[in-house]
Write a structure and sequence with these properties.
nine-stranded mixed sheet; six-stranded antiparallel sheet; mainly beta
Length: 322
């Protein structure tokens, strides 16, 4: 009786073990999610138009010789530059899930894969060594292109990026000359060193504004069309020099220059578009606390005293500040 029971138990165990020894496979669908961060303070956004290729080789032995090769999907042997390789797989659009703007897919099936991604818009390319996992149906990977990065190459996580067309930025020394006129008709004087805060964004004042004194002091600007959109990290900070001027080094235009008078709770901002290869500009602004005006326009500066703002809705105030 005991022997009869053993036979079906052994058969059941054999079936179970057969299921456990399922054939291992590296075959998977590699899903690439291209993203872009236009400036260092910007959020990442979906990026369309990216090219991607896969190769069953190691990045220790193979690399990319140029942007032209990257766009064409050509790898070059690091040991023998005469040896070149075309892609084993070319990416296609991934459409399995809604909202996957710019996503790409590639079937891959080796333990190690070199993945090459190219952004024709910025002419930046990057590649990575992808270690495979067994029996994985889909593998989702993000790649972030950063056109703001300085240099011909950089590392970002497991990705190596290259910008063959990088040009070192032209740096322009720019100066701000803040003055203070306490009473009407008095000669403007230099404010104390601790009274002034000054900075600049690469932004256009036709699109951006400073919504309040507190925002100005915090270095925050607001998108006029959508007040929920803000920027909180100025591109350039100005510092007081022995001359009494506030100097900063700028590398892009147009500039939204913001100056804050901490003592009198006033702030001013203006659009400046200097020639980066020209002479160093000096932008002068005069704070006049004696004026009983909410907003004053003077020599391109919008000077604001929020304490004199009319009692109205925030929307109406934003409209007025435009």
């Amino acid at each position: 009786m005991r022997t009869d029971l053993r036979i079906p138990l052994l058969l059941l165990a054999a079936v179970s073990l057969a299921g456990c020894f399922k054939k291992a496979s590296y075959d998977t669908t590699y899903v690439l999610k291209p993203l872009v961060q236009s400036m260092s303070v910007d959020p990442v956004e979906p990026l369309e138009g990216v090219l991607a290729y896969a190769y069953a080789v190691d990045t220790l032995a193979w690399g990319v010789a140029s942007y032209e090769d990257a766009a064409a999907g050509i790898l070059t042997s690091k040991e023998d530059p005469a040896l070149r390789m075309s892609p084993e797989v070319v990416a296609e659009p991934y459409t399995d899930i809604e909202g996957t703007v710019g996503w790409l897919r590639m079937p891959i099936g080796a333990p190690q894969q070199t993945i090459l991604a190219v952004d024709p818009a910025s002419r930046i390319y990057g590649y990575t060594m992808q270690e495979q996992q067994l029996n994985l149906s889909e593998l989702f990977v993000s790649v972030v292109f950063k056109p703001w990065k300085e240099g011909f190459s950089w590392k970002d996580g497991n990705w190596s990026f290259y910008n063959d067309f990088y040009e070192p930025p032209t740096v322009l020394a720019a100066y701000i000359s803040p003055k203070l006129q306490m009473t009407e008709g008095a000669d403007p004087t230099d404010p104390s060193a601790s009274a002034i805060k000054a900075y600049a964004y690469v932004a256009d004042t036709t699109l951006w504004c400073v919504a309040s004194y507190d925002d100005a002091l915090a270095g925050k600007i607001t998108l006029k069309e959508d007040p929920t959109q803000n920027r909180t990290s100025p591109n350039f900070q100005a510092y007081r020099e022995d001359s009494g001027l506030y100097g900063m080094s700028v590398t892009a235009t147009p500039l939204m220059v913001v100056v804050v008078d901490r003592t009198n709770r006033l702030y001013a901002y203006s659009k400046q578009d200097p020639d980066l290869k020209g002479a160093s500009p000096t932008w002068s602004v005069v704070f006049r606390p004696w004026r009983e005006e909410w907003i004053t326009i003077e020599e391109g500066w919008r000077i604001v005293d929020d304490r004199l703002a009319p009692e109205t809705t925030e929307t109406e105030i934003e409209t007025t500040k435009r």
